[in-house]
């Protein structure tokens, strides 16, 4: 299965046609092995959602004795090389939001050292620091 190009509905339809997922997008392929041959990126706006969905069904397939292998295509290679000529504004925004959420998550996790959070004052100070880091991270991705 290839050339998804940021279209989650096209991805789900292809996997349904191959009888690998049900109408809810859950793995029903049993021990089947599916190979996604790349070109998830560009020309569509749901790239992050597709990556999350693929990871979800990859885990479901493994639990059922099957597998999903996701390969890189030329569009992934172009993006790694900072060639974004086929990226859509929606796709760029999607990755920007994802990057901000990742940075916010790291900032929040950094304040959860159980020893440092043992007092209310320490917890409050850590929360202010994390909020500051989240603002800094967000400004980098806007």
Report on this structure:
The structure is a single chain. The chain has 142 residues and is mainly alpha-helical. It is built from 5 helices and 2 strands, in the order αβαβααα. The protein has helices at 8-17, 47-63, 74-80, 89-110, 120-141; strands at 33-36, 67-70. It has a two-stranded parallel sheet. Strand 1, helix 2 and strand 2 (67-70) form a beta-alpha-beta unit. The longest helix has 22 residues, at 89-110. The radius of gyration is 19 Å and the shape is globular. It starts with 7 loop residues before the first helix and ends with a helix.
Which descriptors would you attach to this protein?
mainly alpha, two-stranded parallel ribbon, 2 strands, globular
What layout of secondary structure does this protein have?
Layout: H1 8-17, E1 33-36, H2 47-63, E2 67-70, H3 74-80, H4 89-110, H5 120-141
Helix pairs in contact: 4-5
Output the helix-strand order. HEHEHHH
Q: Tally the helices.
A: 5
For the sheet with most strands, the description reads: 2 strands, parallel
- Cα(first) to Cα(last) distance is 34 Å
Report Rg.
19 Å
What structural class is derived from the secondary structure elements?
Answer: mainly alpha
Report the mean per-residue pLDDT as an integer.
84
In spatial order, strands of the major sheet run: 1-2
Shape: globular
Strand content range? 5-15%
Number of DSSP strand runs: 2
Tell me roughly what share of residues is in helical segments.
40-55%
Outline the low-pLDDT stretches: none
Oligomeric state? single chain
């Amino acid at each position: 299965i290839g050339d998804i190009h940021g279209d989650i509905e096209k991805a789900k339809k292809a996997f349904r046609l191959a009888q690998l997922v049900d109408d809810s997008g859950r793995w029903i392929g049993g021990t089947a092995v599916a190979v996604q041959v790349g070109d998830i990126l560009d020309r569509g706006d749901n790239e992050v959602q597709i990556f999350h969905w693929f990871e979800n069904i990859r885990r479901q397939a493994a639990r059922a004795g099957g597998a999903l292998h996701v390969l890189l295509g030329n569009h992934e290679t172009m993006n790694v090389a900072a060639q974004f000529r086929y990226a859509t504004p929606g796709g760029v925004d999607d990755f920007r939001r994802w990057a901000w959420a990742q940075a916010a998550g790291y900032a929040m996790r950094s304040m959860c050292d159980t020893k440092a959070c043992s007092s209310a004052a320490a917890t409050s100070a850590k929360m202010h620091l994390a909020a500051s880091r989240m603002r800094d991270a967000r400004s980098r991705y806007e």
